[in-house]
C-alpha cells in the first residue's frame, strides 16, 4: 500500500482554516460523503488500496465495532463544518448530495451496519432530494436479502467488482467469486430497485483479446446502468508486483491495453453506452441530451473530477473542502485510537494555492467528455481566442495531433478524441 503524502500537521480538533468557506462569487459546491470500509476477506494480488484481512488486523480495529468508530468521525465532521469561525466566514449548511461506501469490501459488514452509517450521515447533514447512495460489493459478498435491506435503508446504487467473466483471469487477479454468480447479483439488485454498475479490469497477464471481448460482452448483456473499465496497473509492493519482478508474470503491455480499451469503447457504444470519463461509461437514457453527461453517470465520482467538496470517513480516507485537502491515519487501529481520544483522525493536510487548484482542474476536468472550460484557462493552456489568433498554441498543437476535438476547442472547451483518451496523461502534461 502506498504511503500517505507529506503535508502539514493538522490541528487535533480537525478545525479548518476560514479560507475553506466558499467565497462570495465562487458559488456553493456540492457536498458528498465517502465512507471507507477497510476490510476484505482475501487481499487481491493486484490491490494496493488501504484494506486489511482479519488475519492482518489481529485483535484490534475489528469489523464488529467499525460502524461506531465511523459514526464518531461523522460527529466530529459535523462540529468542524459548523464551527462559528467557518460559519461567520460564509460556510453554508449543506445537505449531502452523494454518499459512496467503498473499500475494501463494504459488504463484509452486515447491512444493518452500513444502514447505521448512512443513517448517521442523514441525521447529521440531511440528504438532498434525489441523493445518490452507492456501495461497492463483491459478487460473492451479498445475497438477495442483503441487497433488499440496503435498498430499504436508502441505498440507491450498487457497484459490483465483476473484473472479468473468464475464470483463469479472475484466478490471476486472486478474485474469489464465480463469474456465474454475477447475473444473479445483478438480478437481485434490480429486484430491490437499485441501479447497477459493473467494474471491469483489462490487461491482466495472460488475458487474450478474446478473453476481454467475452468479459465486455457478458457485462453488456446484463444491461447495467454503468460500466467502469480500468487498465490494470501493477503497483510496487503488491503480490502481483512481486510476481512481475520475479518474472513469474509478464508486465502488462501498453499496446495490448490500448487495443482492449478501443474494443470496449466500440462494444459498449454499440450496446447503448456513452463514455463520460476516460474509464467510465453510462447507459444512455432516452431523455439524455446529445453531448450531455448521461443521467446514469456516477454523480459521486463526478464530484471528484469537478472539484466539489467531500468528507472522507475512515482510515486513510482523503477529504477536500474549499481548497483544503487532508487525509486520515492509515491503519484502522491508529484511526480508531485517535477518535477514542476525542481527536481528529487526520494525519496530514495541505491548503491548495491557486496554481495547484488550476493544475488539478486541468488534470481532472480534461478526462471528462463534457470537456474542460477554457474561459478561466491557465496561461500554459491559453484562452480559446488564441486558437484563432494566428499563432500556434499548446491547444492547437494537441488538436493537430488528433488528441483534442478541434470544434469544441475553438468554442472554448477541451474534449479528448478517442486517441486523446488513450494518451490522456500526455495531454495533461502538455497542458500543464
Automatic annotation (TrEMBL):
Entry superkingdom: Bacteria
Main location: cytoplasm
SUPFAM superfamilies: Radical SAM enzymes
Coiled coil: none
InterPro entries recorded: Aldolase_TIM (IPR013785), Coproporphyrinogen-III_oxidase (IPR034505), Elp3/MiaA/NifB-like_rSAM (IPR006638), HemW-like (IPR004559), rSAM (IPR007197), rSAM_sf (IPR058240)
Membrane-spanning parts: none
Disordered: region residues: 1-22
PROSITE patterns found in the cross-reference section: RADICAL_SAM
Subcellular location: Cytoplasm
Domain Radical SAM core: 25-274
A Pfam entry, by short name: Radical_SAM
Keywords: 4Fe-4S, Chaperone, Cytoplasm, Heme, Iron, Iron-sulfur, Metal-binding, S-adenosyl-L-methionine
Keyword field contains Heme: yes
Entry-linked SMART domains: Elp3
Family: Belongs to the anaerobic coproporphyrinogen-III oxidase family. HemW subfamily.
Function recorded in the entry: Probably acts as a heme chaperone, transferring heme to an unknown acceptor. Binds one molecule of heme per monomer, possibly covalently. Binds 1 [4Fe-4S] cluster. The cluster is coordinated with 3 cysteines and an exchangeable S-adenosyl-L-methionine.
Descriptive protein name: Heme chaperone HemW
Underlying gene: hemW
Amino acid at each position: 500500500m502506498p504511503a500517505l503524502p507529506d503535508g502539514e500537521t493538522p490541528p487535533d480538533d480537525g478545525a479548518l482554516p476560514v479560507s475553506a468557506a466558499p467565497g462570495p462569487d465562487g458559488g456553493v459546491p456540492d457536498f458528498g460523503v465517502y465512507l471507507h470500509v477497510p476490510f476484505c476477506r482475501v487481499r487481491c494480488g493486484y490491490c494496493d488500496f488501504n484494506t486489511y484481512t482479519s488475519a492482518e488486523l489481529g485483535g484490534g480495529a475489528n469489523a464488529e465495532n467499525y460502524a461506531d468508530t465511523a459514526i464518531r468521525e461523522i460527529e466530529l465532521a459535523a462540529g468542524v463544518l459548523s464551527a462559528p469561525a467557518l460559519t461567520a466566514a460564509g460556510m453554508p449548511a449543506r445537505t449531502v448530495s452523494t454518499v459512496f461506501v467503498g473499500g475494501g469490501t463494504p459488504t463484509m459488514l452486515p447491512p444493518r451496519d452500513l444502514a447505521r452509517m448512512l443513517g448517521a450521515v442523514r441525521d447529521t447533514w440531511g440528504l438532498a432530494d434525489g441523493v445518490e447512495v452507492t456501495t461497492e460489493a463483491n459478487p460473492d459478498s451479498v445475497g438477495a436479502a442483503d441487497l433488499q435491506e440496503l435498498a430499504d435503508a436508502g441505498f440507491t446504487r450498487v457497484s459490483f467488482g465483476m473484473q472479468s467473466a473468464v475464470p483463469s483471469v479472475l484466478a490471476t487477479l486472486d478474485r474469489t467469486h464465480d463469474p456465474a454468480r454475477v447475473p444473479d447479483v445483478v438480478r437481485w439488485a434490480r429486484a430491490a430497485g437499485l441501479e447497477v454498475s459493473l467494474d471491469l479490469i483489462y490487461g491482466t497477464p495472460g488475458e487474450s483479446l478474446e478473453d476481454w471481448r467475452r468479459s465486455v460482452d457478458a457485462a453488456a448483456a446484463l444491461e447495467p446502468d454503468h460500466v467502469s473499465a480500468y487498465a490494470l496497473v501493477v503497483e510496487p509492493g503488491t503480490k502481483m508486483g512481486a510476481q512481475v519482478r520475479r518474472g513469474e508474470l509478464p508486465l502488462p503491455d501498453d499496446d495490448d491495453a490500448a487495443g482492449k480499451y478501443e474494443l470496449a469503447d466500440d462494444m459498449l457504444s454499440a450496446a447503448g453506452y456513452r463514455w463520460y470519463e476516460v474509464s467510465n461509461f453510462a447507459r444512455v437514457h432516452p431523455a439524455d441530451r446529445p453531448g450531455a453527461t448521461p443521467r446514469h453517470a456516477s454523480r459521486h465520482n463526478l464530484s471528484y473530477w469537478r472539484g466539489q467538496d467531500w468528507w472522507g470517513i475512515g482510515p486513510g480516507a482523503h477529504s477536500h473542502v474549499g481548497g483544503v485537502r487532508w487525509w486520515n491515519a492509515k491503519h484502522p487501529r491508529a484511526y480508531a485510537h485517535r477518535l477514542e481520544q476525542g481527536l481528529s483522525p487526520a494525519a496530514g493536510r495541505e491548503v491548495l494555492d491557486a496554481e495547484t487548484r488550476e493544475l488539478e482542474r486541468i488534470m481532472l476536468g480534461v478526462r471528462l467528455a463534457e470537456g474542460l472550460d477554457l474561459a478561466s484557462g491557465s496561461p500554459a493552456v491559453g484562452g480559446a481566442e488564441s486558437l484563432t489568433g494566428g499563432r500556434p498554441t499548446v491547444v492547437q498543437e494537441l488538436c493537430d495531433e488528433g488528441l483534442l476535438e478541434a470544434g469544441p476547442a475553438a468554442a472554448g472547451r477541451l474534449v479528448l478524441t478517442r486517441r486523446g483518451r488513450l494518451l490522456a496523461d500526455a495531454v495533461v502534461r502538455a497542458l500543464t
